[in-house]
Amino acid sequence: MEPQSMKGEKRPFGEPWLKVLGGPPWLRRPLPKVGSPREAPVARMSTQSTHPPKPEAPRLPPGIPSGQRRHTLPASEFRCLTPEDAVSAFEIEREAFISVLGVCPLYLDEIRHFLTLCPELSLGWFEEGCLVAFIIGSLWDKERLMQESLTMHKPGGHIAHLHVLAVHCAFRQQGRGPILLWRYLHHLGSQPAVHRAVLMCEDALVPFYERFGFHAVGPCAITVSSLTFTELHCSLQGHPFLRRNSGC
């Protein structure tokens, strides 16, 4: 509805609309003319923001040390491990396996050994610069795994032996293991010299690895203490991750 003061009322030239529209006296005062020494009042912004507060950055659970320069670190990163990551990897592995099996797939010296000889066969998942999950592998040149394959790397081999997959206890039950394994298989598939991936696991874990294209080939010749394992193979040629986007 148009204000009554605007109907038929002539506005003197040069006077602002605030005077004509009526209202309280302080609104009817004419604004200073151009060139007047008085300056127009400056609108002040309210100190209370109308926008909701920004959510706080996610904090790492207890047990994961925060970096000194967290603002420069990517929130989530996948990369090959280096010997400098050996201690962090061993701490995760020890917590994951000692309480269940009483032994570790790899001990600290063995982790350093493989990360020095073949870091390209490893993959780590980092959150704000801290290792939260990883896979370590090496090359093997025989059809089946043998006891010596636990500690040896065969540079001329075409088979990637996955020694260990471990996830930090604070990041389990979040689907990180499957995502990391898919990415690792894709990583291996980008290396022309690697034709197959092999691993050994307890019988209860066989269905998990079968979801990723592995198939059991029988009992593994390797034993650790009184533990026995099933050996699984996965061909990297024509693997599903090469034909579709897994979303990982």
From TrEMBL:
Boundaries of every N-acetyltransferase domain copy: 76-237
One Pfam assignment: Acetyltransf_1
One GO term (biological process): response to light stimulus
Homology family: Belongs to the acetyltransferase family. AANAT subfamily.
Broad class of the protein's primary localization: cytoplasm
Function in brief: Controls the night/day rhythm of melatonin production in the pineal gland. Catalyzes the N-acetylation of serotonin into N-acetylserotonin, the penultimate step in the synthesis of melatonin.
Upper lineage: Eukaryota, Metazoa, Chordata, Craniata, Vertebrata
Enzyme Commission identifier(s): 2.3.1.87
Pathway connected to this protein: Aromatic compound metabolism; melatonin biosynthesis; melatonin from serotonin: step 1/2
Region feature (Disordered): 1-69
SUPFAM superfamilies: Acyl-CoA N-acyltransferases (Nat)
Localization terms from the record: Cytoplasm
Catalysed reaction, written as an equation: a 2-arylethylamine + acetyl-CoA = an N-acetyl-2-arylethylamine + CoA + H(+)
Any one GO cellular component localisation term in the record: cytoplasm
InterPro entries: Acyl_CoA_acyltransferase, GNAT_dom, SNAT-like
Name of protein: Serotonin N-acetyltransferase
Species this protein is from: Piliocolobus tephrosceles (Ugandan red Colobus)
GO molecular function: aralkylamine N-acetyltransferase activity
Keyword terms: Acyltransferase, Biological rhythms, Cytoplasm, Melatonin biosynthesis, Phosphoprotein, Transferase
